[in-house]
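Hello support,

Our group uses your service weekly, and this is the first time we've seen a run hang past the timeout. The protein is RNA polymerase sigma-54 factor. I'm not sure whether the cause is the sequence or the server load. Input pasted verbatim:
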Amino acid sequence: MKQSLQLKLGQQLTMTPQLQQAIRLLQLSTLDLKQEIHEFLESNPLLELDDDEATSADTTSIEAKTDRETNKDSTTNDHESGEEARLESEWTESIPEELSIDSNWDDTYQSSAAVSDSNSFDNDMDFESRNAPAESIQDHLIWQLNLTHMSDRDLEIAYAIVDCVQPDGYLSTTLEDILESLSVDLEELELDEIHAVQHRLQRFDPIGVCSTDLRDCLLVQLEAFQDHPLYKSTQNLISHYLPLLGSRDFVQLSRKTKLKDEALKEVIHLIQQLNPRPGSVIDEDDTDYVIPDVSVKKRNGTWQVELNNDALPPIKINETYSAMASTASTAEDVTYIKNSLQEAKWFMKSLQSRNETLLKVASCIVSRQIDFFELGEEAMKPMVLHDVAEEVGMHESTISRVTTQKYMHTPKGIFELKFFFSSHVNTASGGECSSTAIRAMIKKLVADEPAKKPLSDNKLATILADQGIQVARRTVAKYREAMNIPPSNERKRLI
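Update from on-call engineer: The timeout came from a worker crash unrelated to the input. Re-ran successfully.
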């Protein structure tokens, strides 16, 4: 092939850095955006926090006092002024005219700074306690183990058992495997010794931890109810008929345990007070906080959408630094200040564009789902990204970015904007019904179903069909599982 040079003209779209920044900020959640703003404040000296805007609300509330409050404050101020004068007089009299050369000021008078330092220390301690890493189940057990008197041999066995504890509180291996692993270091070790140490660990907090199976865990916790009149019956049921209880075969349970319905119901109620996953009490997961981006309130019969301005720190251009662009001594300083000023302006413009887009999309969602705010989930209308994109004049990808990890505070709770989008199911009358509304109907039907004869998925589909909603049984099962509702055989309960 012969190599040659050719000129070709064409047009293509390229994303500028400013547009890339605007798109990136648009898809960030409130917590991530707050972190992004703080990082930008640290890197760009032309941008600073707007303290005046942060305190404007307090100033407004102070100016809005009534005459009665003003008079009351005047009286209080006069009283406080007299009190301060009296304290100042006492403080002045308590200080000697001359202090010895080797004396310290704090020896004579304890300043408010010391009190402030003490409060600061308490605040630091509180900060450390609130931001300390979460405690694992092993840490919790080892802390109790260090407070328990044991021989060195038993301690080594206990540490080996604790190392095998899973987050749910159960052992991840058998006691025989633990015996095999410890036989190398401990001479003449027997399985009974491991059982004895396990027996002590199972009484640690939370009770039932270090158990090998569910039956063993429940029996250990049941020991706290030895004074219960049905303790023996409950112990017998857990020891021999736990699978029947899991399958909710109450007829067989009543026949084998020789308990009548009322007694069996009380036994089951006692078992339900036990924790099948004792390790869940020690939660290792960090709490995820949700900050709503917009709020919806009804004022004068109209639903209004507002941005949550308190979620993000207010920022502004530093006028002192921006004025240096004309007074800088070197060309490098002028270039740096101008570039930083341009970046700060683009950043603020991107934030403003994000807020405007978010408010526009949220207002569109509220206007289309007005029945949800008035009547509840059963009145939810089907809506997809294309519907909102067409109404606000944006691309579907933009709507997807806006509604991801963005939350709306409503009188019915806090919902992600994605919650209001759902597919549709055709009705018998030729209309459409939202899948969210169908889930709400299924949840309501399950809540009102007979206790001894729960509704099956096929029966739920039939009831929905009678209401004009054509939905298959497998679709009902999918919606039911999405709401963590167990199947009908597991929902059976005694009256």
